[in-house]
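User:
Care to share a sequence and structure tokens?

Assistant:
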Amino acid sequence: MRRDCSDLLNGEEEEQGQKRILFVCTGNSSRSQMAEALLRHMAGGRYEAHSAGTEPQHEVNPFVIEVLQERGIDTGQLHPKNVRLFMNQRFDTIVTLCDTARETCPALPDAARVVHWSIEDPAAYQGSYFDILSKFREVRDELEGRIQRELVQDIG
């Protein structure tokens, strides 16, 4: 069944001046969780960061917690959420982080800035504990760079 995300930007305006960003991936257990926590950490309350999944998992991947805590980033608020929870809320920017999420949420209105970053799913990577940890660090660093360049650069 095709999900329609067109209502994600049609809700009421939030607090003026604070931009709302929604990161969407399939499981909301790795990429979007990292992006949410990284943006909160980097923007220090100037952005309201959220994440959701089109088919959310039951828990955040433990490697996500580990690689974020390595940087001193708070992980206490992280938990998987279904994108449907946000359907009647307004967002300034929606970032899809995987091709599957983009395909299952294609109908986003022009009123919002919609960005797609095709980020590799670190949870799909196989190898030793240290190999997998390294892959999660790689994805964390990629997300951090993209958030800095493409979302947070205008914060002064």
User: Anything to note?
Assistant: The first helix runs from residue 31 to 43. The beta strands are 19-25, 47-53, 93-96, 113-116.
